[in-house]
Write a structure and sequence with these properties.
The complex is a heterodimer.
Chain A: E1 3-9, E2 18-24, H1 33-46, E3 69-70, E4 73-74, E5 96-100, E6 109-111, E7 114-115, H2 118-127, H3 147-157, H4 164-168, H5 175-186, H6 195-208, H7 219-223, H8 231-244
Parallel strand pairs in A: 1-5
Antiparallel strand pairs in A: 1-2, 3-4, 3-5, 6-7
Helix pairs in contact in A: 2-6, 3-5, 5-6, 5-8, 6-8
Chain B: H1 2-20, H2 26-38, H3 48-78, H4 99-118, H5 131-138, H6 144-171, H7 178-206
Helix pairs in contact in B: 1-3, 1-6, 1-7, 4-6, 6-7
The chains are: A alpha+beta, B mainly alpha.
Bound molecules: protoporphyrin IX containing FE, iron/sulfur cluster and FE2/S2 (inorganic) cluster.
Transmembrane segments (chain B): 49-72, 93-115, 144-161, 182-210
GO cellular component, one term (chain B): membrane
InterPro entries (chain B): Cytochrome_b-558, SQR/QFR_C/D
Amino acid sequence: MNLTLKVWRQNGPADSGRMVTYQVTDVSPDMSFLEMLDVLNERLILEGDDPVAFDHDCREGICGMCGMVINGVAHGEQKATTTCQLHMRHFEDGATVTIEPWRAAPFPVVKDLVVDRGAFDRIIQAGGFISVPAGSAPDAHSVPVKKDDADAAFDAATCIGCGACVAACPNGSASLFTAAKITHLGLLPQGGPERDSRVVSMVEQMDAEGFGGCTNTGECTAVCPKGISLDVIAQMNRDYLKAAK
Amino acid sequence: MAVTGAMLVLFLIGHMIGNAKLFLGKESFNAYAEWLRTVGEPALPARTLLTLTEIVLAAAVILHMWAAVTLARRAAKARPVKYATKKKSQANGYVVHTMRYGGVIVVLFVVWHLLDLTFGVVNPEGFAATPYDRVVAGFQPSRWWVTAFYVAALVMVGLHLRHGLWSAFQTLGLVGGRNRRLLNAGAAVFSALLILGFLAVPIAVTIGAVK
Ligand code: HEM
Ligand code: SF4
Ligand code: FES
């Protein structure tokens, strides 16, 4: 298949950037979206051009590096799918595809489609951990966990920190990500002791990074490759109100 | 947003039920309006309930708007560079994206509405007439455009509530899981019923069912 790509090109943080149009030919429908970009980049390199910079690592949907906005939708229109797992068979031959980086002030563009998601790391540093004396691993069944709590914590823990929720949110809010971490740690006994201080520091850090406020539009959960539910945001709000009391 | 919004919703419920007294006839409706002004007398001064309501409502509206403006400004700051592609909503449709301008339309409506039925400034019967006569005169068939404006504004109020109602519970952390989905559906049903209740009055007057 052949495609017309409109790709955001930006030489560096200081460059103002622009959309550039490319033709890619002989794309196999079995290729992933990133492989299609590899084809484009190989050609650009042969022609002596600068290849399109994009983040990626695992290419199997678990690392959270590969985010980009495809035709206006974070990770593309395919539900519950990261960009690296999105296949070209979902596109029509001859289609025009626009590709943009995540757009949010706390995620500055480094180059082309690569943004700096350091803001997420700082939210994690603010409280997304548990303090335990390290040593040999305890027996797995030494602390019982209710099945429902374990399931809910596990669901929240599937968040890969990709940032699609921020990219899709009309408010540029990081609530779904932050709430997923708070829920995941708070529901388990190991995360219990720091539950109150965690939610306060992480929410404060999220606000300090310049993310917008949540208005429950639900755009985040709709694009989340891991289907993190809005329930985690209710949980975060509940914990926050309790801790702030 | 959630707390002030909840106050406004409580007011709307009371207001809708109060308006329905119009169908019980002129005396009943005017007596109700009179009761609002005299309840608690002589223990309390005249208009105690009404004045208190007005103060709480005014405060709620102002704080609600202040919160909305703050959120909108934070949102604008959080996304200085816009997307080139027009974003299609991936969530449950467009209603949630009408909240900001929808809210402005509702406020403009409330201003007109107060000038119309509370102060009588833009009402043919004026301030001197009884509340019942003001309503009936305001929605005469010849003034169909007033009714049309009310219908449009009330539909906007309904859309605002359709999102606002469940969103308030979510913000306060009061729902999760199956309950959230139930509440979401409940919000749609409740908003529709409330707005139909409100719409009954102007439409009944305009088609001549209430004179
Ligand atoms: C068709 C629908 C409606 C009708 C027929 C109606 C009718 C009235 C009437 C007759 C009054 C004056 C009551 C009196 O002087 O005792 C009034 C007051 C008021 N209405 Fe409505 N109303 C409607 C919808 C709404 C809606 C949707 C809102 C808000 C979004 C609203 C907000 C108010 C406010 C804030 C007051 C003033 C309350 C006060 O003075 O304490 N109304 N309405
Ligand atoms: S909540 Fe979903 S969209 Fe947001 S960072 Fe985690 S995996 Fe990505
Ligand atoms: S490259 Fe790791 S999730 Fe896509």
